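Today's session is about reading a structure prediction critically. Students often jump straight to the picture, but the first step is always the sequence itself: look for stretches that repeat, for charged clusters, for runs of hydrophobic residues. Only then move on to the predicted structure, which in these notes is written as discrete structure tokens rather than atom positions. Here is the chain we will use throughout the hour.
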Amino acid sequence: MTVDRFVTFSLSDIQAVCFQCEDAECGARLIVPPDNLDIGVLDECPSCRRDWWRKAEGAKGMGLPTGATPMVAFLKALPRIRLAEDNGLLGFTLLLQFDDPSCK
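Below is the predicted structure for this chain, in token form.
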């Protein structure tokens, strides 16, 4: 018999959003409260100054690559979704499910 174990979180469980630099020599992390996300601080790594959005690729009026647009939309929506849930404005709760790390 197989037993799968999962961990489920709601958006209200998010304590912080962590952005980690992909530069192999840096790896710095920027940790931000989810309700105070400022997209402007994500332009570059606060440590090595690597461009996090790769603006040279360009996107519609935002100076961001096309692939970054959904990320920006998610980051901007996160505080609004949390507020809507907190105020009972939704008929559901959004839950995110992950494999239980203690079972790996």
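Discussion point for the tutorial: The beta strands are 6-10, 17-20, 29-32, 95-99.
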